[in-house]
Amino acid sequence: MRVFWDERQRRHAPVQELHNGGFVPFAEHIGRVDSMLAALGATHSVPDRGEAPLLRVHPGPYLDFLKSAFIDWKAAGRPGDAAGYVWPVIGRRALELDRIDARLGQYSMDASTPIAEGTWESAYWSAQTALAGLEALLAGDRAAFALCRPPGHHAGADYMGGYCYLNNAAVAAEAAWAAGLGRVAILDIDYHHGNGTQDIFGARGDVFFASVHADPRTDYPFFWGHGDEGGAGEGEGATLNLPLPRGTGIRDYEAALDKALEAIAAFGAGLLVCSFGADTFAGDPICAFALETADYAPVARRIASLGLPSLVVMEGGYAVDALGENVASFLRGF
Ligand code: SP5
Ligand code: ZN
Asked: Would residue 154 show up in a list of annotated catalytic residues for this protein?
């Protein structure tokens, strides 16, 4: 399976994030990439397909915000990285406010997603990496791995969150649709619910979203991913959420995964996008499932048995020392 990666994804390097009421080192750091690259070997380069495929998912004003936020932050005389501190919970009024603090609140859902100097450049190339993986499928590869970083599945059409800025999986799924590949299924197996992806496609009947994740009653993102969220309008029945309790190991995990795979098979997709997070690993420092390195290969084999052309898009995974081997195990299984 070819691995796609662009060095410009390294430029995003926020210093810290809010955690338990104080600031701690940013968990989604570049050491994750070094671990993966060391385990995966050679990578393939990523062409620049411009902003048009991003604009199929994200509105222009949101992209403009991502591009200028750090510059505006510095222009306001602020130290460190750009981060919001006020959120419009009563309703997201369509106010066009100039103040950088207002814009940071308007376009984000949490305080763990700071914008640093290289954030836009890395997010842009992360999305381009997903598109490069999709192009490998269009060229006839059965599967491709997009080493996306920053990750994407918490980002909605017009908000960032959960270390995510652009929704790489959604950008690839939309591009696949535009390329005529037909109905797309997205299987999200990051530890956290992919609220952004669900939000983007929840009202669509032509894109299926299935997610196996930690129960949002105990885990981030809390407000999305509950078992009764099944899509809306034309998308009713095209969203499947399978929350699992903390401590879940491979047996119960595979039972839930099989439910998701059955639903995807019944949907009749022409392409699978798999949002893969290795934060389901037993040793993950910020998560609480119990998968072992060797478990990722049979998990991937089950997914591959769908027989669909498959784009694997990297999401989370914070046990840096084991991350590369966990991803390698998954890709070998595929
Ligand atoms: C893509 C992905 O896995 N995003 C996860 C976002 C979770 N954000 C909230 C987690 C809060 C815990 N912060 C721990 C910081 C340790 N340095
Ligand atoms: Zn995650």
From this structure: yes
